[in-house]
Automatic annotation (TrEMBL), chain A:
Protein name: Proteasome subunit beta
Family annotation (Pfam families): Proteasome
A GO BP annotation: proteasome assembly
UniProt subcellular location: Cytoplasm; Nucleus
InterPro entries documented for this protein: Ntn_hydrolases_N (IPR029055), Proteasome_beta4 (IPR016295), Proteasome_bsu_CS (IPR016050), Proteasome_sua/b (IPR001353), Proteasome_suB-type (IPR023333)
Automatic annotation (TrEMBL), chain B:
Matches recorded under CDD domains: proteasome_beta_type_1 (cd03757)
Lineage: Eukaryota, Fungi, Dikarya, Ascomycota, Pezizomycotina
Any matching Pfam family: Proteasome
Protein name: Proteasome endopeptidase complex
Cellular localization per UniProt: Nucleus
UniProtKB/TrEMBL annotation, chain C:
PROSITE patterns attached to this UniProt entry: PROTEASOME_ALPHA_1, PROTEASOME_ALPHA_2
UniProt record similarity statement: Belongs to the peptidase T1A family.
Protein name as catalogued: Proteasome alpha-type subunits domain-containing protein
Pfam families: Proteasome, Proteasome_A_N
Natural source organism: Penicillium antarcticum
GO MF term set: mRNA binding
Any one of the GO CC terms: proteasome core complex, alpha-subunit complex
UniProt superkingdom: Eukaryota
InterPro entries: Ntn_hydrolases_N, Proteasome_alpha, Proteasome_alpha-type, Proteasome_asu_N, Proteasome_sua/b
Comp. bias (Basic and acidic residues): 260-284
Organism classification: Eukaryota, Fungi, Dikarya, Ascomycota, Pezizomycotina
Compositional bias (Acidic residues): 285-301
Length: 260, 261, 301
């Protein structure tokens, strides 16, 4: 027994060696997300005459493990805006709840939710930027689709750093490498929007998803696709990639120990 | 016991386990809060105008994010279109920081007008921008900013900044990815560096050609030439050239296509 | 009866009515009773629990010709599926709604789904009751009617990403029935009951009499008919203060497959006008009947 109550009930240093306080202390750096855990891959989007189409596959991966295969990565906001999420799924769930609570608050007024996709994008970009500035990022890359204040089709991107950009067609993750070139070929950026039909846009997205399924190892042939027009959102969440052909795989040679 | 009087910690003295907490090993953040979105900007002043220009490409690594992301903004306008602004700002580097910086400066200049009933002078705005940047000295806005306007005498004013707020007034300045390509060109074509008056002497006795403010149309053409050349040699520059010309009459905005390769 | 009246009269001025949280010797909290008086002066509010939804209606006395018609709403939305209308002090009602919204939001924070109407009524009842306990506050000068529709459909958890297992643990129960309409009335004491039809405010007696005629207990009244009845009841209740002009505000919450898809919304303008027209016609009809009777009596004489 000694006269230092702090020592009571603690292992004695002279018996057990110096106590490692680093396990108890609350000071020091606070742990934040430094890498994503369960992730979704590419999001692809195209503007067309009178609206925007958005698509993702339904996979959530845990590293290289295909962990969840019916994940809904397209989320609606109000009745004329959508967000497609790539990156961390738990951060997506957080943002979805955030947007849900915002939509509820908007609907307190009798006018309903007046925020359009452009407003939503600005807000999300600021949330991302704020969190990255706190070194506690929301690990996502999102596409926001809908209409702007003038009623024109709107498609824009925001990522975990708060970086934003807009273009007639966009894709996140692997899609930025594989889908964007396809979309740029199909609809060159100087084509007037009036010349891009809804059918062509949807067909192009399906084509992109197929190519992504061929070449992106963390992708799935089950996908969701949303078409946003003035009439509202047409969201399909249980689609299957059609017309796959793996004939090209026959010609791929020269990997690993393979010699012929 | 005597050591209690001194500055030795109690834990060390008595050998029990309540010594001062040792700092936990510092965890390494693998999150890097910056990225480079490429692109270049350029500002040149004349006797009664200032031009601020930038390409409209946004990149991430080898990807082109978009071909139309402006880098030059009106500051202190009356509405979201920027109508009524008398100051221009260009930002190049990390675009998210650039946007945040633009929005902060814009609101400050607008607040100044609401509070004082008059527009902020470029000189004051230039100092304010420096302060905004320096406030984040230890987590900087990763941007190279250029501010342009007309000074109290109506002459073109141009201020260039480093990311932490060091600034100076200059005749011309190129910033961003292709600044090392454009700046020497500007030295030669705007400040007539390495240009001499023919037949004015032999060797070092050659008289340098004296720099004087250039007319607006000459400068406009210089800007276009600077960018078309930069596009040829730098992969992060291209797609479009956005040019804003501020004169006594107001702000004129012009867009020229650039090569998209 | 006489002694009770005597007690109430003599209690005033004894000091027991001056402070909240203080009982009078005969077991009453006068501050709460005075709050009820404030409610009794407010515009009539009614709620009807129908088989496929809930209707809320309120009589708004026009206190100034300078007020913009249709503006200054008195029925508020809480979360998506609940509406609240109150009679009494309007600012107290606003604060009450604000608390309801906070409760609904915090429920979502914990349970990742919409708050059941009963749970909301319970929490609000507790909140109002707390304002009868302390001398530093006064009770709410409102009686509020809380109407909601608890979804009968399988609802995704907030932020849910997958469909969940088809069967087994955590799986779906085929044909499970849940949800439905909810209607509660919370009084200044914090007392709340669930109702088939609820009425408060100045014209509550007349409104209650009308509500009782509707046979709501059998659960046959449709939402569409409920809208018409609610409008008519407000018009009937207004008969006693005919000299004042009023405006009818009405909202509804239908089932998920009904017109509002489980959301609390304003009754559409056309429907409201139709209901008001029918209400006026019904009143005129009553008047004629009375006039006929009157004439008959005269003739007999």
């Amino acid at each position: 027994m000694n006269h230092f109550p702090e020592a009571w009930g603690r292992p004695r240093n002279d018996v057990y060696g110096a106590y490692d306080h680093s396990y108890l202390q609350t000071l020091g750096p606070k742990a934040h997300t430094s890498s994503p855990a369960v992730t979704g891959t590419s999001v692809v989007g195209v503007k067309f005459n009178g609206g925007v189409a958005l698509a993702t596959d339904n996979l959530a991966s845990y590293g290289s493990l295909a962990r969840f295969s019916d994940v809904k990565r397209l989320r609606s906001f109000g009745d004329k805006a959508m967000v497609g999420f790539g990156g961390d799924v738990s951060d997506m769930q957080y943002l979805d709840r955030l947007l849900e609570s915002m939509d509820i608050k908007e609907n307190y007024s009798t006018h309903g939710n007046m925020l359009n996709a452009k407003n939503l994008h600005t807000y999300l970009a600021k949330v991302f930027y704020k969190r990255r500035s706190e070194f506690n990022p929301l690990w996502n890359h999102v596409l926001v689709a809908g209409f702007d204040g003038e009623g024109e089709p709107f498609l824009s991107s925001a990522d975990l750093l708060g970086t934003t950009f807009s273009a007639p067609h966009l894709a996140t993750g692997f899609g930025a490498h594989l889908a964007v070139p396809i979309l740029r070929r199909k609809f060159p950026e100087d084509t007037p929007l009036e010349e891009v039909s809804q059918e062509d846009a949807v067909a192009a997205l399906k084509e992109c998803l197929k190519v992504l399924f061929y070449r992106d190892a963390r992708s799935l042939d089950k996908y969701s696709i949303a078409v946003i027009t003035k009439d509202g959102i047409d969201l399909k969440e249980d689609e299957q990639i059609q017309g796959q052909s793996w004939a090209f795989a026959e010609r791929i040679k020269g990997y690993g120990a393979q010699t012929v | 016991m005597t050591s209690f009087m001194g500055h030795q910690s109690r834990g060390e003295t008595i050998g029990y386990s309540f010594s001062e907490p040792t700092a936990a090993p510092v965890k390494q953040h693998s999150f890097y809060p910056y990225t480079d979105n490429g692109g270049s900007t350029l500002g040149i002043t004349g006797s009664d105008f200032a031009i601020l220009a930038g390409d409209t490409r946004s990149t991430s690594g080898y990807n082109i994010n978009s071909r139309m992301v402006p880098k030059v903004f009106r500051i202190g306008g009356d509405d979201e279109t920027g109508e009524g602004a008398q100051i221009l700002l260009s930002v190049v580097g990390f675009a998210a920081d650039g946007n945040a910086l633009k929005e902060r400066l814009d609101t400050m200049v607008r607040m100044y007008k609401y509070q004082h009933g008059k527009s902020m002078s470029v000189g004051a705005c230039a100092q304010r921008l420096s302060t905004i940047l320096y406030e984040k000295r230890f987590f900087p806005y990763y941007v190279h900013a250029i501010l342009a306007g007309l000074d109290e005498e109506g002459k073109g004013a141009l201020y260039s900044y480093d990311p932490v707020g060091s600034y100076e007034r200059e005749q011309c300045r190129a910033a961003g990815a292709a600044s090392s390509l454009i700046m020497p060109f500007l030295d030669n074509q705007v400040n007539f560096k390495n240009q001499y008056i023919p037949g004015s002497g032999e060797g070092h006795a050659l008289e340098p050609k004296k720099a004087e403010p250039l007319p607006k149309n000459t400068v406009k053409q210089l800007v276009r030439d600077a960018f078309t050349s930069a596009v040829e040699r730098h992969i992060e520059v291209g797609d479009g050239l956005q040019m804003m010309i501020i004169t006594r009459e107001g702000i004129e905005e012009v867009y020229h296509p650039l090569k998209k390769d | 009866m006489v002694s009770e009246l005597h007690a109430s009269l003599t209690s005033i001025g004894t000091g027991y009515d001056l402070s909240n949280s203080v009982f009078s010797p005969d077991g009453r909290n006068f501050q709460v009773e005075y709050a009820v008086k404030a409610v009794e002066n407010g515009g009539t509010a009614v709620g009807i629990r129908c088989k496929d939804g809930v209707v809320l209606a309120v009589e708004k006395i026009i206190t100034s010709k300078l007020l913009k018609p249709g503006a200054n709403k008195r029925i508020a939305t809480v979360d998506r599926h609940v509406g609240i209308v109150s009679a009494g002090l309007v600012p107290d009602g606003r604060h009450f709604v604000s608390r309801a919204r906070d409760e609904a939001s915090s429920w979502r924070g914990v349970y990742k789904g919409p708050i059941p109407t009963l749970a909301l009524a319970n929490r609000l009842g507790g909140y109002v009751q707390a304002y009868t306990l302390y001398s530093s506050v006064r009770p709410f000068g409102v009686t509020a009617i809380v109407g909601g529709w608890d979804t009968e459909a399988e609802l995704a958890v907030d932020g849910q990403v997958g469909s969940g297992p088809e069967s087994g643990s955590g799986g779906k129960v085929p044909g499970a029935k849940a949800g439905g309409p909810g209607l509660y009335m919370i009084e200044p004491s914090g007392l709340y009951w669930g109702y088939y039809g609820a009425a408060t405010g100045k014209g509550r007696q007349a409104a209650k009499a009308e509500l009782e005629k509707l046979d709501l207990t059998s659960g046959n009244l449709s939402l569409a008919d409920g809208v018409k009845e609610a409008a008519r009841i407000i018009y009937v209740a207004h008969e006693d203060s005919k000299d004042k002009e009023f405006e009818l505000e009405m909202t509804w919450i239908s089932s998920v497959d009904g017109p509002t898809k489980g959301r609390h919304e304003e009754v559409p303008k056309e429907l409201l006008e139709e209901a008001e027209k029918a209400a006026r016609r019904a009143l005129e009809g009553d008047d004629e009947e009375e006039e006929d009777k009157g004439q008959g009596e005269q003739m007999e004489e």
